[in-house]
Design goal:
290 residues, six-stranded mixed beta sheet, binds 2'-monophosphoadenosine-5'-diphosphate, globular
């Protein structure tokens, strides 16, 4: 992307709704910190407008942007080029223009792994993961964990059929053994886990108790949640109280953003404690009751 390095580039995040997105704050921080004369803005795009938005993108003046809920799958179908990871996931969260064509990738799995690298680097020695949930975020994480060498991947979901569908879809692409489970199996599975991941929305924005007893987990197990509102979710609170190593979900948000920033603005930004604190302050301000 050296051809765009010296211009005042503009990037976006599109979603519906989009007001809750912290991406403008995050990219705005990097632009200011790195003294790059670019812009990054939130654009609300209704589902019925997404096709037009993407079709017009090459002439819009934007150099690319992020895609969030509910557009990741629709945009996947609309881009000119997608890399292997976006193709397997069927979802795109990062777009950029190259020679007038729209390119798409998915950095969610990268963000998840980079967050663990930062806060629990020995996660890479693990072999068995239990992952709770089978939505879009879960898919990205499962694929990343398979590629990172996790040989046993247990997917637990309230709706078993969704976990089964992921197993069927991903097994040809990964060397790992993928197994679907219903929620009733979760407690027994915990004894095998080196890593336990919550990707469900249980506990998002509330303080209800997490509906799974973690006492079967191994002493050295690492426990992580992708929800970061609140930062200490009921799931992490429960794990912390039992003295497990925990990693919160904020770092995934920060790390998944870095590859896009580099594409649009030509510099790889750092994820620093000051940045984390900056975003955290905003999260706390906007959710004073948490
Ligand atoms: P995302 O794309 O962000 O992962 P999603 O597709 O809405 O979001 O998936 C949310 C996940 O949380 C799903 O695995 C969902 O389980 P179902 O597939 O059975 O719906 C899970 N989830 C949400 N609320 C839940 C609850 N109260 N109990 C158990 N699982 C729940």
């Amino acid at each position: 992307m050296s051809n765009i390095e010296h211009e005042a580039n503009s990037a976006f995040v599109i979603g519906w709704p989009i007001e809750h997105s912290r991406s403008p704050l995050l990219h705005g921080y990097w632009l200011k910190y790195l003294k790059i004369p670019g812009t990054y803005e939130a654009v609300a795009i209704a589902p019925e407008k997404i096709e037009t938005f993407i079709k017009l993108l090459p002439k819009s003046g934007f150099v690319g942007g992020n895609v969030t809920v509910p557009h990741k799958e629709a945009v996947f179908r609309l881009v000119d080029h997608k890399d292997e990871i976006a193709t397997v996931l069927g979802a795109v969260n990062t777009l950029w223009l190259e020679d007038g064509k729209i390119h798409g990738t998915n950095t969610d799995g990268y963000g998840f792994c980079a967050n663990l690298d930062e806060f629990a680097p020995n996660w890479r020695q693990g072999k068995t993961v239990v992952i709770l949930g089978a939505g879009g975020a879960s898919r990205a994480i499962i694929y990343a964990l398979g590629k990172a060498g996790y040989s046993q991947i247990h997917i637990v979901n309230r709706t078993l059929a969704r976990a089964e569908a992921i197993v069927e879809e991903f097994s040809p692409h990964l060397e790992s053994d993928l197994q679907p489970h219903s929620w009733e199996d979760a407690s027994d599975l915990l004894g095998k886990a080196d890593l336990l991941v919550n990707t469900t929305s249980i506990g998002m924005g509330d303080n209800a108790e997490f509906p799974l007893d973690l006492s079967n987990l191994k002493e050295q197990a690492i426990v992580t949640d992708i929800v970061y509102t609140p930062l200490l979710t009921p799931f992490l609170k429960s794990a912390k109280s039992m003295r497990y190593k925990t990693v919160d979900g904020l770092g995934m948000l920060l790390h998944q953003a870095a590859p896009g920033f580099e594409k649009w603005f030509g510099t790889r930004p750092n994820i620093t404690p000051a940045l984390r604190q900056y975003i955290l302050t905003d999260l706390t301000k906007k959710e004073p009751h948490k």
